[in-house]
Write a structure and sequence with these properties.
about 375 residues; alpha/beta; Rossmann fold; 4-stranded parallel beta sheet; 15 helices; about 40% helix; globular; binds iron/sulfur cluster; iron
């Protein structure tokens, strides 16, 4: 629910339990990056500790048939959004490119700056891309096993519930993400299930989509999308190059960060924003011709999804810092750092996505 009590957000936990109890339904979960650094603290674990393995374990025990990490589709988002940026730079049109993975920001542009709607990336969010890919996979009669597939998305965000029912993100006229629950709803489910979460042994995600890169993990923190895109745009894979990107100004919890990075024969001008009040300041500058960015990343929540409206509330500075650190540590622990290194993503382009990238990964209109 809304912490101010101004709006009541409907809970969807009962729908999830109903789906899990139905033997004719395959229930597939996807878990967003920011969720893993907020669940542990509710069960007495260290603040900001990444508990993705325990989340996979508890979801498997509850009866989820497959558990996936949304970092996989964050990698897909990076691939598509990088291409879109390069294409707009070539055309010198529809710049700055505005990121599209935060639904609250997308709605803000539609409501407050409608003249910039065509600047919004057409890419679906990682939630939208993943659900479309899962549904497409299970459209194949060889994979269905006679079951209906229900996709449950576990997000740090109440706005993701609204995003899931937006018809411009449907595939073949149908909703791809069936149920969205927040981190707090997941915590409630774990409590109701009555399992000792902190003692669970960690488990891996499932195949065929169970692998993500560090670039996908850092989507949960402000600047993460930009950092992942810059990793994608750099042709090299060496640690020194990735460290230089991390230190170019993309990190840090300031509400507005400006970064200029060399790319081929030009200087790429990027603005990274968190918080809608800051987004308004930046958009006013753009509107008045006082700024000429190529890319603007906006997350409506200050510090990004780690502080989303679906995360446990009353997070003080120590918690905010710990969640940020938790995601960067998770990135440090990943073998793959760049989205274009993810072999499952690359093989998807040669298989399931062939001729369907626009249909499955992009919104009909932004
Ligand atoms: Fe949701 Fe906030 Fe993340 Fe935007 S920044 S996607 S509103 S949690």
């Amino acid at each position: 629910y809304c912490p101010t009590g101004a709006i009541t957000i409907r809970t969807h936990v009962d729908e999830v339990w109903d789906a899990l109890a139905d033997p004719d339904v395959r229930v597939v979960a996807q878990v967003a990056p920011a969720v893993r650094v907020a669940v542990g603290e509710a069960f007495g674990m260290k603040k900001g500790m990444s508990v993705m393995g325990k989340i996979a374990a508890v979801l498997h025990r509850m009866g989820f048939d497959e558990v996936y990490d949304t970092t996989f589709s964050a990698d897909l988002t990076v691939m598509e959004e990088s291409e879109e940026l390069l294409e707009r730079l070539r055309r010198k049109e529809d710049l700055p490119l505005l990121t599209s993975c935060c639904p609250a920001w997308v709605k803000f542009v539609h409501d407050q700056y409608p003249e910039y709607v065509h600047n919004i990336s057409t890419c679906r969010s990682p939630q939208g891309m993943f659900s479309a890919v899962i549904k497409e996979y299970y459209r194949d009669p060889r994979n269905t096993g006679g079951k209906k597939t229900v996709v449950v998305s576990i997000m740090p965000c109440t706005a993701k519930k609204m995003e899931a029912v937006r018809p411009n993100s449907f595939t073949k006229g149908k909703q791809d993400t069936d149920i969205v629950i927040t981190t707090t709803e997941l915590i409630r489910m774990i409590r109701n299930y009555g399992i000792e979460f902190s003692t669970l042994d960690p488990e891996a995600c499932d195949m065929p989509f169970g692998m993500g890169s560090g670039g996908g993990v850092i989507f949960g923190v402000t600047g993460g999308v930009t950092e992942a895109v810059l990793r994608r745009l750099t042709p090299v894979h060496e640690k020194a190059a990735l460290d230089a990107i991390a230190e170019c100004g993309v990190r840090g919890d300031e509400g507005i960060k400006e970064v200029t990075v060399p790319y081929e024969d030009m200087e790429l001008k990027i603005c990274i924003v968190s918080g809608l009040a800051n987004a308004r300041k930046v958009m006013e500058k753009v509107k008045n011709g006082e700024a000429d960015y190529h890319l603007i990343e906006v997350m409506a929540c200050r510090r990004g999804c780690i502080m989303g409206g679906g995360q446990p509330t009353r997070a003080g500075d120590r918690t905010k810092e710990a969640r940020t650190k938790g995601l960067y540590n998770a990135d440090n622990n990943m073998i793959l750092k760049k989205s274009d290194e993810n072999p499952l993503v690359l093989s998807l382009y040669d298989g399931l996505l062939k001729g369907k990238t626009h249909e499955l990964l992009h919104n009909k209109e932004s």
